[in-house]
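Listing 4. Sequential folding, example run.
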Amino acid sequence: MQPTQQVIHFYDINCQYGQNLHRWIDTNPLISILQVIHIQPGIGIWHVHGHCTECFTRYTLNFIPRVGNVDGEIMETLWSSLNIVSPSTCKMVTPH
């Protein structure tokens, strides 16, 4: 009996991406996934709130056993310091 290795895969749209991942891998002759690997899709807490209720309960870190929380993604943590340049981009429209 071989133990199963759980792999947590985070992606902003894992509810859609994860549905097709195994099909894509199965149809590609160059890659494969070992049978002992279980890929558990997840969506970070910041992005999962923009999805439907079913996505929250299925993909949030709070409900995946043996998974800890992460401190956001790089862009989200930089937004507060990047806000200073936002006035220079708000006037970029077609006439300019």
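-- end of first protein; second protein begins --
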Amino acid sequence: MSSLVDRAGAILSRLDVTEVAPRRVGRLMSYDGLTMEAVGLDLPIGSGVKLTATGGRAEVVGFRGEKTLLMPLDSAGAHIAGSGVMPDASGAMVGVGNALLGRVVDALGDPLDGFGPIPTSDRWPLEGKPGNPLDRDRVTQPFDVGVRAVNALLTAGVGQRIALVAGSGVGKSVLMGQMLGGSEAEINVIGLIGERSREVSDFLATKLPPKVRARTVVVAVPADHTPLLRLRGAMRATAIAEYFRAQGKKVMLMIDSLTRVAHAQREIGLSLGEPPTVKGYPPSVFGLIPRLAERAGADARTGGSITAIYTVLADGDDLDDPIVDSARAIVDGHIILSRTLGEQGVYPAIDIGRSLSRVMADIASPEQMAAAGVYRRLWSAYEENRDLILMGAYTAGGDPLVDQAIARRPDLLGFLKQKPGEKLDFAGSAGALTEMFAA
């Protein structure tokens, strides 16, 4: 017996517990299906916690008196009243590294593709690192997306933020696939947020050929996940893109869709008692959009960049939807897809008159800008007189510009058309525009 005591004493003598502080454990008091209330916790908003009874995870989202408000990260947890709630510091950081390339993960970073664990080599804050606005570089270099209409008429730049606005079934996913296959990005980060599970598997199978997938990270959070997970999915995708930008890489970030992220924030805000405003959106939604979009851009210190494309769903093709309007106000350009063009068999169905690149003047040559101006004038002249033309009420010779717009309408639509697997580079696109529509 004495020998066992001596051995135990030798083992305990090697333990240094002088730096170990007691851990505060709270208790779960209530749960209404979306939010929890716990007592005995002293944690800031955004902190992660674990529930000892179920092993579930949650996040601190607010306070009510001395009670801490939590939101679960799993909707199917069998939570028990009075169970312990312990701090979990891992929730604020994202595992990052080259091992993520070619993989598909969920909002918590767990792999979904069945290829085993992902040995991430570094950590990055989920909320991003505070930055100096003077470190954000100007957008002066073209970003080739392989789509002729975008390259020539809505020229994208390295570090630009673009809103891709469309109703349902207008070809948004097809255009995203074209941009992925034709872009010159070194790294692609895709956040599939709030979409149907079938669309996630379909996107991976049809829009990501092996060559593209090898340099792509996909964060997938389908619509049946909790709103907090959907929100964290968009933030995780952005954090991964920030990490690669810090390595000096040219990154393309796609979030599909920003509207679903806003819907998730609406659920969270309303559950916390925020007052609803336009279309039921609480004020926190309109703060989330710029907070997320401002994390993209070019970094003058590292030379890396994040060129971001945020898809925005225009419910009922309403371009005055508050999320559409808020997104257009913060990004550097927007691409509007037209259902009318799609019904005519024009794909990608880009409405050039309503679309805009705010950085094109700093990128394109004077010859390209002049040709794009001619194209826009002809497009606008036809659209403004569309009803008269279709009814036969317009008389030829009434306006030379309208006459020219009618005569060149097939050229205008033909320039937009491009097959899904076809890649047309920036130089060729700009040259074709200048040749066809020279001022």
